[in-house]
Write a structure and sequence with these properties.
The chain is of the alpha+beta class. Among the domains are: 2-156, Beta Polymerase, domain 2 (2-Layer Sandwich); 157-242, Hydrophobic Seed Protein (Orthogonal Bundle), CATH 1.10.110.30; 422-470, no CATH class. 54% of the residues lie in helices and 11% in strands. The chain contains 25 helices and 15 strands. It has helices spanning 2-13, 16-28, 37-43, 59-69, 118-123, 150-156, 165-171, 174-186, 192-201, 210-221, 227-235, 239-242, 244-247, 263-275, 281-289, 294-297, 311-325, 332-343, 346-352, 357-367, 371-380, 387-411, 422-429, 435-449, 457-470, and strands spanning 32-35, 51-55, 75-79, 84-89, 92-98, 100-103, 112-115, 133-135, 144-145, 158-159, 189-190, 254-255, 258-259, 299-301, 305-307. The strands form five sheets. Strands 3-4-5-2-1-8-9 form a seven-stranded mixed sheet. A hairpin with an 8-residue loop joins strand 8 and strand 9 (144-145). The radius of gyration is 30 Å and the shape is elongated.
């Protein structure tokens, strides 16, 4: 225990904010504690600015006293309806609340709140590792209050509820997602009785807003490795309420001795592979979604076995629907994920056959600035147990990337803009906006993609004139180059 005392005092004494809050509490004659994630992170040796304070009394009054002691250097915000207050002081955001106890109705996550003791407040915490408190009053400065032995659970790397798991999860089902998220972020196990409670109460997630669920899901996706959190959700029966399309990927079907791979575990492997090379949330989402349409496109043929023809296009069409339901952003981020899902087979197809400049140009044209991310996804998608096969594919991908660099340096099609604009076509032929303009631009684009002309104004303008003449258009003006 002496080791814990030294660690606590070392942290508290290194930062003036704790003595300031403790002094303000003594002046008001109330007990004050720093609680929650900050206390947990002291023992995990993780930096944290997540400062939550509980006092046995009015949290608002304590916040006001702290703000006064800072003499105008802080900004005080009071939220009377919630009985909470916030003091912003430099880089700090200090959250204050009075100790309370809560009770819940079965159809709502919103608790009925009453004033309570420190013990009441700790009882309402989600997990033992988040239920520890450190006293800040001068007489007990640095005393750890740990009624549920959270210290031991930290040592054992265990997520456990302080009370009966059924009460904890039924009262606030979002704690199901939080528990899995903490396990994923910290690399902890979930205690057997807590895991059973999650399983029994998974259906209660239906009363939680999708925004809150997705917020926790994104944190799981950003953990390393993210597959751990997904496996916990799957085995606890949580994933079918959060992301049913992903559950549909699970399983292997065998016909005439021919089986396909389990696309659920393949997807998790791809996600982990991507996560080794990027922390980008949306590239990780692309990994999750890349095979999402395989169940819908699965077919069996006696000659070739299992096929999933068109799953990339079907998957790209599914992306907006899933993003909308999960309250994910329907902006460029969705378009980015959709693009990578649609294109994820293209580089693999290039690896399988001799690479032509035309194929490379078309891939660069369609992928644009996302081509590097597409290649990361494609490399992650090689999950064969045959190490030599994986290395062969990765070596071929390097050749494709070299070819991309050569073609892009020569033809500049990565962010393709036609050398001849629609306005130029209208001016050259003296025509208004009309269908022939788009047709001429498409002919020019195809000629560039196929390598028939260089991506330059001169050759493109000459082709424009020839194409217009074939269409019965007559040039009325020569444009200066």
């Amino acid at each position: 225990m002496g080791e814990h005392v030294n660690k606590i005092l070392s942290v508290l004494e290194s930062d003036p904010v704790f003595a300031i809050v403790g002094k303000a509490a003594d002046e008001l004659g109330v007990e004050a504690y720093v609680v929650g994630g900050f206390v947990r992170d002291i023992f995990l040796d993780r930096p944290s600015k997540d400062l939550d304070f509980v006092c046995v009394g009015s949290g608002i009054a304590l916040a006001e006293q702290v703000a006064r002691s800072l003499k105008g250097k802080s900004n005080l915000s009071i939220f009377k309806n919630f009985g909470t207050a916030q003091v912003k002081w430099g880089e700090y955001e200090l959250e204050f609340v009075g100790a309370r106890k809560e009770s819940y109705r079965t159809d709502s996550r919103k608790p009925i709140v009453e004033d309570g003791t420190l013990q009441d407040d700790q009882n309402r915490r989600d997990f033992t590792i988040n239920a520890m408190a450190i006293c800040l009053n001068k007489k007990r400065f640095g005393d750890l209050v740990d009624p549920f032995n959270g210290i031991e659970d930290l040592r054992k790397k265990t997520i456990r509820t302080p009370l009966d798991p059924d009460i904890t999860f039924s009262d606030d089902p979002l704690r199901i997602m939080r528990g899995i998220r903490f396990a994923a972020q910290l690399g902890f196990d979930i205690a057997p009785d807590t895991m059973e409670g999650i399983t029994r109460n998974a259906h209660r997630l239906e009363i939680v807003s999708m925004e809150r669920v997705t917020d926790e899901l994104n944190k799981i996706i950003l953990s390393n490795p993210p597959s751990y959190g997904f496996q916990l959700m799957f085995h606890a029966g949580v994933l079918k309420y959060v992301f049913p399309e992903m559950v549909d990927l699970y399983g292997v079907e065998v016909i005439n001795g021919k089986a396909h791979k389990d696309n659920f575990f393949h997807t998790l492997k791809v996600l982990d592979n991507v996560s080794q090379v990027t922390t980008d949330l949306w590239l990780r989402w692309a990994a999750i979604m890349h095979d999402i349409a395989k169940p819908a496109t699965k077919r069996f043929n006696d000659k070739v076995g299992w096929t999933f023809h068109g799953h990339e296009d079907r998957g790209a069409r599914m992306v907006p629907k899933i993003f909308r339901r999960m309250r994910l952003p329907m902006d460029l981020k969705m378009k980015y994920v959709q693009k990578l899902v649609r294109l994820h087979l293209r580089p693999i197809a290039l690896v399988k056959r001799e690479v032509t400049d035309s194929a490379i140009r078309r891939l660069l044209f369609e992928a644009g600035d996302d081509v590097e991310d597409l290649m990361k996804l494609c490399k992650a998608d090689i999950t064969s147990k045959d190490h030599n096969r994986v290395q062969r594919y990765l070596s071929n991908f390097e050749l494709v990337e070299q070819k991309m660099a050569e073609v892009e340096g020569k033809d500049h099609v990565r962010n393709f803009q036609p050398p001849v604009s629609g306005e130029m076509i209208m001016e050259a032929f003296g025509i208004p906006p009309s269908k022939p303009i788009g047709e001429i631009k498409e002919v020019i684009k195809e000629a560039i993609m196929e390598g028939e002309i260089r991506n330059e104004f001169g050759p493109a303008y000459e082709l424009m004139l020839k194409t217009g003449l074939k269409m019965g258009l007559k040039p009325v003006k020569e444009l200066k180059t």
